Structures are given as C-alpha cells and as structure tokens.
C-alpha cells in the first residue's frame, strides 16, 4: 500500500511521506524498547534488588520521552502530509486530466472523476495521520518487543516467533474473507445507487408508463442484492473479523500458562513473571490494533487503486516538434479505428479478429468547402468527427489537417483549428452570453451578435424575458433542445476556427431555424472547411461533396446528382427522407 501511495503521489509528495515513515518507525521502536525496559525495572522493584531500579527507570523515562517527542513530530507530520497530499493529488489529477485523450471523458467517467477528486482524495489524505501512523506503531512495536525478549527470556521470544506466522496466517485469511465480502457488498451498493439515480432521472418516462418504485424491477433487484450482500457480510464476515483478536488473546493465554508453569518449576523467578506478562499484553494489544485498522485500510486501498488507475492512464503523447497546419484542408488517409474496449481480447478458441469499427476510411475535404457525411445509425460518423479533433488516436492510417498529421500538431493549435458542435450539447451553469463567449471570451459585442444571428440564436434571445442574461441551468436544462443547439452553434461560430464540424447539430431545430442555418452554412462554405453530419436534405443539397458511410466504410461519394444516378444507398436515403420531410424534386428540364 505504501508503494501505491508513493506512486499516486509522484516525486513531489514522496519525500514528505518518507520523512513521516522514518519518524513513526523511530517512535514505534522507542515505544517497544520502553515496554521491554519495564521487565528489568519491575523485576528490580518486585525482587530483592530495588536499588537496581534507578538506571532502568532512567532508561525507561528517556525512551518514553523520546517516544513522546517523535510521536508528536509524527502527528504533526501526519497532518501536514495529509493536507499537502490533498493539494498534490488535486494538482496531479487536474494536470493529468489535461493530457488525457478527450474520448476518455465519457459521462460515467466524468461523474467518477468527481468522486475521485472528492471522496477518494479525502480517504488518501487521511491515510498518513489516521492509518499509516497507528499501523506502523502496531507492527513495529511488537517486532521490537520480540527482539528485546530475546535478551530477557529466550523461551518467551521463541514462543512469540513461533506464534507470529500463525497470527499472520489468521490475519491474511480474515482480511481476504472480509475483503471479498466487502467488495461484493460495495458492488451491490454502487448498483443500487446507480439504479436510484436512473429511477430519479427517468421519472418522466416511468410516470408516463405508470411505474412506481416498487414496480421498477431493476431498482427492486438492486435493493435485494444489497440486502443479500449485507446479510452475507454479517454472517460470514463476523468470524473473520473476530478471529484475529481471538488468536492474539490465545497467544497471550498460552504465554500466561507457560509463565505460570515455568514459575512453578522454578525456571522463571516470581518477580520476572508479571513483568513479562505486561510486555506480552502490550504486544498482543498492539497487534490487535493493527487488525482493527483493517476496515479503514480496505476503504483507503480502494480509493488508492481508483486514483492509481486514473493516474496510470496513458496520456496523449505531445509531439516532440510540433508543426503548424499549412491550410485548413482535411484528409483521412486509410484510417482504421477501434475504441479501446472494442479491441478483441482473443479469449478462447472461437475468438478471432473482427473488422475494426472504421476500416480504411479515406477522403479529403478541400479548404473552404462543405462535405456532408450521411449514413445509418452506428455507421461511425461521430467517430470520424472525434478522430478529426483527435479525441482518440487512429489505430491505423493518418488524419491530416493542412497536410500535417494531427499527432504532430500541438493540442493548443489543434484546438484552435477545429470547432465542433455535437448532437448532445452541454451547456455550463451560467447565462446564454457566458455560454456563447466560451468560444471567444474577448469577442466584441458586434462579433457576438453576428455569431448569434448566423446561428439563429438572436431570435431565441429576443423571446426570452432576460435575453442574453437568461440562466441556462446546469447542462442547459432551462432551454429547449433546439435552443441549446443554437447556443452551441453560436459558440462554435464565435470561436471562428478554420474547420467547423457539425454532428447532427440541426437535429433539434425547427424548419425555420434550419433554413437560417442552411443559408449560414452556404455562406460559411466559402470561408471555412465544413464537415456536416446530417440527415437533413437541405444541408445535403448544399454540400459540394457527399460521403456515405456504412459499417465503418465510405461506400459512396460524390455530388447529389452522381449519387442519385448510382441508385444505391444515397438514392434510397434520399427517397426515404424526402417522403419523411415532404420534399419533391422536380426533374431537371
Ligand atoms: N466511446 C465509445 N466507446 C466504445 N464504443 C463506442 C463509443 N462511441 C461509439 N461507440 C460505438 O461505435 C460505433 C459507431 O458509433 P458512432 O457514434 O460513430 O456512429 P454514428 O454513425 O455517429 O451513429 P449515430 O448516427 O447514431 O450518431 C457504435 O457501434 C457505437 O456503439
């Protein structure tokens, strides 16, 4: 665990941790020696040579004082280490998050990250003061006592050395039993929490279908699972929890019985016996304290492992010698890609390689032109947009912007080159203006209003009582889907990057706003490189190039007339969409 702690802290926090460990180890050793000195001291006091007690008492007082001083230093270092650790961990997490692939931040991961930075960092920050210090004391003090007993009575030392592996075995067994049960119960609690959250979030759907908490099977099952986990922990975990304390008491009882028998047969003097028992009593108490720390250790270990898993995630490599894109044309050259968890693991004889999600995707979008990407759901269109902005790195082939591999462009230059509006728009807590200004905080009022007009957001702002100052709520919940999309489009337009990607960004717009956006796109096509993922016919007609994507491949490409003449997927798409949108194309005369 100390190794894990060093790893999550990095070099910055490790020195502090080492100093704490050394101080506490010194305190524990001095405490063990002080306990051991009680034996000759008591022997002298209870025996016939009370005059010999003074030197032992002096040594005992010196060791106890030394222990108290080191303990006080350890305590203060423990708390200092704790607060420093929290700062170091927060900084490391923030720095690491900056370098993680953007694709890593799924909704679930983002929620997990907040738990990591809150609860888990608190657990780890409490470790030095509340876990490590008592743990070191309760392990090293007994070890010192065992070593000291070699000089006091070899037989006691031998019994302690022989009992140590038995105690260790009982400890390992009880820890593994309780850890297994704890893990099972933690999983069940997490499942219940997820289901409750799902139940609360989806109230509108559940109520529409008349489902109450009792009738919501997933939540019922999760609660039953949680109760089962609790029962198991109580029934099977209790023997594990008490077994170690019981074994430690048994060692004490054994030494008590042996001491009595050695005293009776005259091989141990009467004055030494109580002193030895005091020593062994301290030893078993210390060892039991170590076992009591088990629950706290398990929780802290879980937090440490979660932090380690995130900090160990490989950051995106930054280019050693970054290059600037020469222009704003986009090129996908034989690109293949699979999301990390989709990579075949090759388990079992039947497991073979399946096709990657994207396979040999090649296309070029000339600078200042518009390309529409269409295709069925799950074809890989959004993935293409993500690869263009380097949310992930390709597994094969190259994505280029302005003739330069995106992996050779610095993240800052890449971010400045590409603006993206995704289907699932996220707005930050704040006003409409705050949200649009994220695109360019320094933009003038005039530029802001121009972007809003182009996105059709000015109409929305005019109808809202608070206009630009309307608070959108976290995630933008105070706005409709179409309004949120217009805010996101205005934000992207304000950023004024040379490449603009719209991923189904018009899906929630009404016909009027769509018409505004279509003419905006037409106007923008002469200034920017546009990639528009859409199923809207008006947008597709505006494009200079249409790419049809199916099953991770580009299956058709060309302009509207060429693709219609092919009579393939595009023609079928056109036919189906024009019926849905009530469109009819007049034959060319
Ligand atoms: N983060 C992710 N991790 C793993 N798999 C993913 C991830 N995102 C998408 N996928 C999978 O990749 C495939 C392609 O998804 P993608 O979103 O690119 O398709 P799409 O053509 O944009 O679909 P839609 O039109 O429905 O948005 C899908 O099977 C999807 O389940």
Automatic annotation (TrEMBL):
Give the UniProt keywords, A-Z: ATP-binding, Membrane, Nucleotide-binding, Transmembrane, Transmembrane helix
Domain ABC transporter: start-end pairs: 330-576
Q: Which InterPro entries match?
A: AAA+_ATPase, ABC1_TM_dom, ABC1_TM_sf, ABC_transporter-like_ATP-bd, ABC_transporter-like_CS, P-loop_NTPase, Type_1_exporter
PROSITE patterns attached here?
Answer: ABC_TM1F, ABC_TRANSPORTER_1, ABC_TRANSPORTER_2
Q: Which domain of life is it from?
A: Bacteria
Q: Which residues cross the membrane?
A: 20-42, 54-75, 131-151, 157-175, 241-264
Indicate the segments forming the ABC transmembrane type-1 domain, all copies: 20-293
Any Pfam family: ABC_membrane
Q: One MF term in GO for this entry?
A: ATP binding
Q: Where in the cell is it found?
A: Cell membrane
The record gives the membrane topology as:
Multi-pass membrane protein
- The protein's name is ABC transporter ATP-binding protein
Species in which this protein is naturally found: Microbispora siamensis
């Amino acid at each position: 665990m100390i190794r894990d702690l060093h790893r999550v802290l990095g070099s910055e926090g490790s020195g502090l941790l080492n100093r704490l460990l050394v101080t506490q180890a010194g305190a524990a050793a001095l405490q063990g020696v002080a306990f051991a000195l009680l034996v000759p001291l008591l022997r002298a006091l209870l025996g016939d040579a009370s005059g010999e007690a003074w030197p032992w008492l002096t040594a005992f007082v010196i060791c106890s004082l030394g222990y108290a001083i080191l303990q006080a230093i350890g305590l203060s270092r423990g708390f200092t280490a704790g607060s420093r650790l929290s700062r170091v961990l927060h900084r490391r997490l923030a720095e690491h998050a900056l370098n993680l692939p953007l694709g890593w931040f799924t909704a679930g991961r983002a929620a997990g990250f907040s738990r990591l930075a809150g609860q888990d960092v608190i657990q780890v920050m409490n470790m030095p003061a509340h876990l490590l210090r008592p743990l070191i004391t309760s392990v090293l003090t007994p070890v010192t006592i065992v070593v000291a007993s070699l000089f006091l009575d070899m037989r006691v030392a031998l019994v302690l050395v022989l009992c140590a592996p038995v105690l260790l075995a009982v400890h390992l067994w009880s820890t593994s039993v309780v850890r297994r049960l704890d893990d099972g119960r933690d999983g069940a609690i997490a499942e219940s929490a997820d289901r409750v959250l799902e139940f609360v979030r989806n109230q509108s759907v559940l109520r529409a279908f008349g489902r109450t908490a009792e009738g919501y099977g997933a939540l019922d099952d999760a609660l039953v699972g949680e109760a089962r986990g609790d029962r198991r922990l109580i029934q099977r975990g209790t023997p594990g929890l008490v077994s170690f304390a019981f074994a430690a008491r048994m060692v004490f009882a054994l030494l008590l019985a042996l001491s009595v028998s050695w005293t009776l047969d005259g091989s141990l003097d009467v004055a030494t016996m109580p002193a030895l028992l005091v020593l062994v009593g301290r030893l078993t108490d210390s060892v039991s304290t170590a076992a009591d720390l088990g629950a706290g250790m398990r929780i802290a270990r879980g937090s440490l492992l979660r932090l380690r898993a995130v900090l160990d995630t490989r950051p995106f490599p930054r280019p050693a010698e970054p290059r600037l894109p020469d222009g704003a044309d986009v090129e996908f050259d034989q690109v293949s890609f699979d999301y990390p968890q989709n990579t075949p693991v090759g388990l079992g004889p039947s497991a073979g390689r399946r096709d990657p999600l994207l396979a040999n995707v090649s296309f070029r979008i000339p600078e200042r032109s518009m390309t529409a990407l269409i295709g069925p759901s799950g074809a890989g269109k959004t993935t293409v947009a993500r690869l263009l902005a380097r949310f992930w790195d390709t597994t094969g082939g190259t994505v280029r912007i302005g003739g330069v591999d995106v992996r050779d462009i610095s993240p800052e230059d890449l971010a400045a080159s590409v603006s993206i509006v995704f289907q699932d728009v996220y707005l930050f807590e704040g006003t409409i203006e705050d949200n649009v200004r994220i695109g360019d905080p320094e933009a003038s009022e005039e530029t802001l209003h121009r972007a809003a007009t182009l996105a059709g957001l000015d109409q929305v702002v005019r109808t809202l009582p608070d206009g630009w100052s309307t608070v959108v709520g976290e995630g933008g919940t105070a706005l409709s889907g179409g309004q949120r999309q217009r805010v996101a489009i205005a934000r992207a337009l304000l950023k004024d990057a040379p490449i603009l990607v719209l991923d189904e960004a018009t899906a929630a717009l009404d016909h009027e706003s769509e018409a505004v956006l279509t003419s905006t796109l037409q106007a923008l096509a002469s200034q920017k490189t546009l990639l528009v993922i859409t199923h809207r016919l008006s947008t597709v007609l505006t494009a200079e190039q249409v790419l049809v994507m199916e099953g991770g491949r580009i299956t058709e490409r060309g302009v509207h007339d060429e693709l219609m003449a092919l009579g393939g997927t595009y023609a079928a798409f056109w036919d189906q969409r024009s019926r849905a949108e009530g469109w009819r194309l007049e034959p060319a005369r």
